[in-house]
Amino acid sequence: MKKLKIADGIYMLTMNVEDVLFEGIWEIANGVTLNSYIVQGDKTAIIDGVIGWDGVPETLYKNLEEIGVDPKSIDYLIVNHMEPDHSGWISNFRKIKDDFTIICTDKAAKMVASFYGEDKIRVVKEGDTLDLGKGKILSFHPVPNVHWPDTMYTFEKDTKTLFSCDMFGAFGRMGDHCFDDELTPDEVEFFEIEGIRYYSNVMATFTPSVKKAIEKAKTLEVKTIAPGHGPVYRKNPGKIMDDYSRFAQYAEGAGKNEITILWGSMYGMTEKAVKYAESILKREGVKYNKLKMPLESESEMVATILRSAGIIVAAPTYEYKLFPPVATALNEVGRKKITGKAAFRFGSYGWSGGAEKELAEILERNKMNWDFIESVEFEGAPREEDLKRVEAGVLALIEKMKSKVVA
Ligand SMILES: Cc1cc2nc3c(=O)[nH]c(=O)nc-3n(C[C@H](O)[C@H](O)[C@H](O)COP(=O)(O)O)c2cc1C
Ligand SMILES: [Fe+2]
Ligand SMILES: [Fe+2]
Fold first, then answer.
1. Non-local CB neighbours of 284 within 8 Å, separated by 6+ positions
2. Is the bond into 141 cis (omega within 30 degrees of 0)?
3. Domain residue limits, the chain
4. Which fold has domain 2-251?
């Protein structure tokens, strides 16, 4: 765990978590940080706890002592969000100290009670404040459904620091550089990619609420954004706000100028057409990614689809339906409410077909509203004329996605 000073009386504690499935699902290849913040006036508040998964909150207490904060002196536990990655240590804290007050929204209060049996809670509403003394005044600003219904921002008025919890967060472990102005260009890119992965895995379903939360942050004249996961933005908080606005656009059909081929093939018939489509993309100079299902992790799959302006779905018929790993992937993308993508499908069948019907069902069930070029299906191996139809489809997709590209 690392300890960092953000401003006088404001500290960050951060630890890298690796080798876990985030939320029990997402294989986060590059880890994630859990960040916690301490604000000290005459009274002391801790905003979100960093421990919950490893069952060693003593590490947190030791680190608090090292920055001169006696854990027993903590008066307020501010729970921006009840998800246990931020709050899992409350019960343990109760064992060493009994007279602290939990501060959270009404929706969080209900969960803090049901998950941890806590009842010493002060419920806050939009604009409520807490004066810690020595000029440190916190205000509270609910941002519901980012990522749970209970979530809020905490804002420190003196330094204009926004403790944004899951909002403006990213996956990715942090080395020595935890502030935006310290990041190398490679690290900036790393956290953008990991930010997209985080957005797609954790936030995409809540895009309408994320957009409202961005607007709320803009009303607060923020100087520093201190999220619950990922780097702190003290030089240019506008950068992560702009990034999040763009990620929200990605979830609504925009994307980077690249195509992702989401594909699977049993005996290589569809794969022949995939290779042909690749040769067209190369010829046309279009950047593309390939996701072979089911080999790709779900985390990487959702992230890559989210950021792409064009999607090629290449999959055969299997037992009268779409090849299952590709159907599963599309269902997951649909559940994440990634809508409006420009897309094109092709695939092989043996006798009846059926993949196309299931694709339509998946799109309809999840209200994905993807804009598809007419699909190309071929019996067995693709013939010359099938490949020509694939080429025409790829060219039409390149054309269609142009209006969806954002930098
Ligand atoms: C387990 C299995 C189930 C299949 N089910 C169907 C089917 O219901 N309808 C159909 O038209 N073809 C079906 N096929 C045939 C495949 O769609 C066909 O072999 C196709 O060429 C496979 O393309 P691929 O080599 O890209 O996987 C099935 C093939 C397999 C192996
Ligand atoms: Fe969360
Ligand atoms: Fe979180």
1. 394, 395, 398
2. no
3. 2-251, 256-401
4. Metallo-beta-lactamase; Chain A (3.60.15)
Q: Which residues contact 203 (CB under 8 A, 6 or more apart)?
A: 146, 147, 166, 210, 247
Structure tokens at 165: 């919890």
Selected from 3.40.50.360, 2.60.40.1180, 3.40.30.10, 3.40.109.10, the CATH number assigned to the domain covering 256-401 reads 3.40.50.360
Distance 377 CA to ligand 1 centre (A): 12
Q: What angle do CA 106, 200, 372 make, to 5 degrees?
A: 125
Expressed in angstroms and rounded, the spacing between residue 231 Cα and the centre of ligand 2 is: 16
Could you tell me if 274 and 246 are in contact, meaning their C-beta atoms sit under 8 angstroms apart?
A: no
Q: What is the mean pLDDT of each run of 10 residues along the chain (407 residues)?
A: 91 89 88 94 90 61 84 92 85 83 96 90 98 97 96 97 98 96 98 98 98 98 97 98 98 98 98 98 98 97 98 98 98 98 98 98 98 98 98 98 94
Rounded to whole angstroms, what are the CA distances from 116 to 7, 61, 91? 32, 20, 6
pLDDT (0 to 100) of residue 347: 98
Burial of 359 (0-12, 13-18, 19+ CB in 10 A): buried
Most ligand 1 atoms within 8 A of CB, residue of 266, 272, 356, 390 to mutate:
266
Strand, helix or coil for residue 28: coil
Q: How many residues comprise the chain?
A: 407
Fold match, 2-251 / 256-401:
no
Which amino acid is located at 12 in the chain? M
Joined tokens for residue 337:
């409410």
Task: In whole angstroms, give the CA distance from residue 175 to residue 52.
Answer: 21
Provide the residue type at 90 as one letter: I
Terminal Cα distance for the chain, rounded: 35
What ligand 1 atom has the least distance to the C-alpha of 352? Answer: 11
- State the pLDDT at residue 121: 95
